Amino acid sequence: MKKVIKCLIVWIGVSIAFFAANGAAKRPNVLFISVDDLNDWVGCIGGNPQAKTPNLDKFNSEGGMVMYDAHCAAPLCGPSRGALLTGRYPHKTGIYQNQDHLPTIVKKKNLITLPEYFSQHGYHTISRGKIFHPQSPIPKDNKWNFGKWAFDEWAGRPSSVAPIGSKRPVNGLPNLPNEKKSYHSKAFDWGPTKGNDETKMRDHVTASWGAKQLEKRDFDKPFFMAIGISQPHLPWHLPQKYFDMHPLEDIVLPKTLKGDLKDIKDKKGKFLKPDPTWQRVENAGRHKEAVQAYLAAVSFADECVGLLLDSLAQSKYADNTIVVIWGDHGWHLGEKLKYGKATLWQESCRTTLMVKVPGLTPNNKKCMGVVNLIDLYPTLLDLCGLPKNSNNDGRSLVKLLKSPDMTWNEPTLTDFYHFGAHRIYDGRYSYIVFEGKGTEELYDHKKDPMEWKNLVAHPEYAQIYKRLKALVPTEREPDSRKNK
Ligand SMILES: [Ca+2]
Ligand SMILES: [Ca+2]
Questions:
Q1: Residue 233 known to be catalytic
Q2: What is the pLDDT of residues 115-130, one digit of tens each?
Q3: What is the domain range of residue 259?
Q4: Closest by Cα among 427, 413, 418 to 470
Q5: Residues 133, 246, 329, 422: which is the catalytic one?
Q6: Cα–Cα distance for residue pair 229/226, rounded to 1 Å
Q7: How many domains does the chain have?
Q8: Around ion ligand 2, which residues have CB less than 5 A away?
């Protein structure tokens, strides 16, 4: 009898091991590609007809579905990535800023980040480049918080290539006489790098490394590979050839409206002013150069993404790898008299999101559902057959990926780094509130895609205003830096 029981135990053990291995073997891999500060200036998305992104376009033609109405959880690198990777909104975690130290907060709040969750559920997680936003300024003795702490395998950050000449800014654009010191006052810069060799660029080295892992490695577990491309984040120091792809004389500027901000009044009765970077470019008459430089940076980023996609296509993982390509938020190139991110307007909040699930997502498809980057965590768990994480704020998009033409327009939320600043957007209308400043805005995107006309006080829109305002979160975590 003892022998029979022993045999039974061994048999059960072997069966469990077999089914576990078999289940794991069937699980898809994930290639998770972040492109820092990439707005919708991608050929197949159509945000700017001048964008040259052959690799992303090819991806779209081969099942990489464009999630056309995708929005970030916060319009700044740190909180956007913090939200996506913890699956929680900033107003629930207190991660509002780039200065937040993610490893500490995650531990303190008992959160499990997306790569950690995959690792705990049988995946090998591997990464290079910017996936997590490092605490800024980066402590000299602590380079690990770029994300090393969250992955099984993490490759160091390659060095960057300097521009030609030592003068800064390379573009020679002067600051305004009384301009406050900011990231932009130094980093809003463009110009050619030494050597004109793209293969030496940080992102190229990062992407080539990822491509090599896909070609050469024989992973014994399913993998979750996260590769972070840093362009088109500032500064736009790039090989000259990328500027040459977008001749200055052909550049058409985005639409702007003079006096656009004269309908946004704060509680002191003051109107919003154009952003200082925009004012600098305006004073110097150099908008076309700025737009050219961003387009150049997007083309370079596209080439880096192409290295990964080509390598995956030729690898043994091609048919069993989900690919997600995401920008962490949008970027203004003059719209609403602004350059950069960190606003709650459409240009900052809407971003690139493309998803390919082999055998599921169709070729050449744009899905119009209203989605948020916060949805990626539960979506990926769902697609890979992993148990739900009850801490996730987002909702799985699998139904939508299966039926991309279905109605999917539940209002979505974007938090801001100012306490009490939020945006609710439902595909047609957006409502923006900055409680501290006392500003409120309402836009009808069907009639006014550039958000020129603030309808907040318009009686015809009173019901819409009321409906969207009611969705603004009222309970908010204090800023995590103030809560240490
Ligand atoms: Ca960013
Ligand atoms: Ca306006």
A1: no
A2: 999 999 999 999 999 9
A3: 29-483
A4: 413
A5: 133
A6: 10
A7: 1
A8: 260, 263, 452
